[in-house]
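With this grant's support, the team has encoded backbone shapes as discrete tokens. A representative record is reproduced below.
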Amino acid sequence: MSTRLTSFSKILIVLVVMVVLFFLFRKFIPQNDRKSADASEVKTEEAKQNSETVNEEKTTWNKSFNYTPTKPVNGKLKGVVELGASGFNSFIVNMDNNKNWELKKAEWGNSLVYDNMATSGDIREGLKRYITKILDYGVDGRDIHFVVSSGAQKVESTKKIIRELKNMNYVVNTVTPEQEAKYALTAVLPNKYRTVAFVVDIGSGNTKISWVQNNGSTKGIETYGAKYYKNKVDDKTVYQDVFNKSKLIPKNRTKVCFMIGGVPFKLAKEVRKDKERYTVLKDPGDYNVEGAK
């Protein structure tokens, strides 16, 4: 027995099938769409965060120190030669009677004088060539000052150089780590920062930390230098000593840290603008360190 469907019945069946298909699509298809949408939102957020990170890094690299030192008036050229543990560092400055100064020329890590030091004659000739370069710049011979860093005094070859300089009638000043720390502070720290900042001088043989105490005197302390590894000292020992020494700095003097030395100079070269005296370093994690630093 067969049953003939009316037109109305056919229409009802089609509607039922469409409704079923609608709910089936709604149950399964939107989930996939939602996942895609969620994934899209995640990718968009990640891209935004990455963009913000890049922009933040660029901002860090472009930071500047808003301080303009007082220029010297009617100054005079003076030369300072530091006998460091790794070589000679020379500086020519223009300085006035009020101790305002500006750097005119600098040479870092010149080891020529340390080379070929078999005889006293070799040392003397090497020193003469080195001093002549400073004289040729216009510095009076009486205004060339030699300073032996506290780290260099531990190097045997330095004693030969000091002896020859004295034979050439130059005055050679030897300094203790505490004195060196004080001199670094005097040269680097602007007066307006004396009550809020401290100074770190990172040398090859040792590091000097200094700050101005409440009574106006300067306090200087010593810790390991940048090349501590040459003395077979492990990283943990150095870290602990630096950490302990840093705790001696009064909290109200830690707002700004001024750093000098060979390693800070190399780090500053990556972001230094023209011949600015002060350069803001990048965050430690932003540097790609090569070698032992």
Observations:
- Residues 177-286 form a domain with the Nucleotidyltransferase; domain 5 fold (CATH 3.30.420.150).
- The two ends are 98 Å apart (CA to CA).
